[in-house]
Amino acid sequence: MFRDTVEILATTTFRSVDRKKQDILAAGERCIRFFSDAELIYVKRLGKDSGFGWTSLAARGEGKSWKVTHLAWAQTVLSPLIVNRMTQRIREVNLTLSKIYTNLGQESGKRFLPPQWRIDSTTTLPTYIYEPATAARFYARSIKELNAVLQTYLLGTGFDAVRADNRIEIKRH
After folding, report:
1. What are 13-46's pLDDT values in tens digits?
2. Do the domain assignments include residue 140?
3. Phi/psi of residue 42, nearest 5 degrees
4. Diameter of the chain by CA atoms?
5. What is the phi-psi region of residue 73: left when phi exceeds 0, alpha when psi lies from -120 to 50, beta otherwise?
6. By three-state DSSP, how is residue 74 classified?
């Protein structure tokens, strides 16, 4: 785990998260390093072309092709922009669940109440609660995937999305 900021000194490649698209990281660009996977480093590209992806920043290239400009950092406050993104994602999931359950009801002639995520407004940091709680065990994989999506929004912030039963809590790490 790196969590530092590096400046690119010599042009290198930048691959999309799925590693299917390729772009260039030009000299002078900055990235936040998160972790490595084999020879690649997962980074957040900073600046006008910001985004997450993979690049090769070999240790032997430090000082030649890249340099650390800021050691590990973390935000002290969760950005409202990130909270809004997470909340919007929760709304999208709820809308999808409503549509699925409406279609099931139309096909079966029965009325089904869809499980929904709600935001616990009594906590300082966002907590998302899946209701009814009994449905969480049937949707454990979906909850795990949503947790992973929320975690990507939090990369480099000093916060984590922590899943427990029918809850996803945002916590400082």
Report:
1. 999 888 888 999 999 998 888 888 878 888 888 8
2. yes
3. -85, 125
4. 67
5. beta
6. coil
